[in-house]
Amino acid sequence: MALDEIAAHIRDGLAGKSFDGSLKFDCGEEGVIVLAGGDAGTTDRDADCTLRLSAENLTKLLSGKLNPMTAVMMGKIKISGDMSIAMKLSKLIA
């Protein structure tokens, strides 16, 4: 799935919800998705928290096929910045 499609899926999941702070999914050369407020876009910018992972693992994470804690422990996701922002993610896209 292309990052544009993933961003659209995240926007749908954010509909009617608020999100304090900003979160970046950094998929390396494939690009980025940045969540800020109630929107998700593919324009790179600074964020309060950054999750580095492949686009494939991002798709699995968002579909519930990849457990976030297990993925971090296995090195499939690397987190930098404000960890509390990353913890809010599960409530938004569930």
Notable features of this structure?
94 residues; alpha+beta; Nonspecific Lipid-transfer Protein, Chain A; 5-stranded mixed β-sheet
Describe this structure in words.
The protein has 94 residues and is an alpha+beta fold. It has a single domain (3-93), classed as Nonspecific Lipid-transfer Protein, Chain A. The chain is 39% helix and 22% strand. It is built from four helices and five strands. The protein has helices at residues 3-14, 55-62, 68-73, 83-93; strands at 22-26, 32-36, 39-41, 49-52, 78-81. The chain has a five-stranded mixed β-sheet with strand order 3-2-1-4-5, with helices on one face. The model has no long low-confidence stretch (mean pLDDT 90).
Instruction: Give the count of helical stretches.
Output: 4
Give me the oligomer status. single chain
Rg calc: 12 Å
Order of strands side by side in the largest beta sheet? 3-2-1-4-5
Class from secondary-structure proportions: alpha+beta
Poorly predicted parts = none
CATH class: Alpha Beta
Ends: how far apart? 19 Å
Number of domain modules? 1
What would you call the shape?
globular
Which sheet architecture does the biggest sheet show? 5 strands, mixed
Order of helices and strands: HEEEEHHEH
The name of the CATH architecture is: 2-Layer Sandwich
Which range does the strand content fall in? Answer: 15-25%
Please name the fourth-level CATH homologous superfamily: SCP2 sterol-binding domain
State the total count of DSSP E strands. Answer: 5
User: Which fold does the CATH topology refer to?
Assistant: Nonspecific Lipid-transfer Protein, Chain A
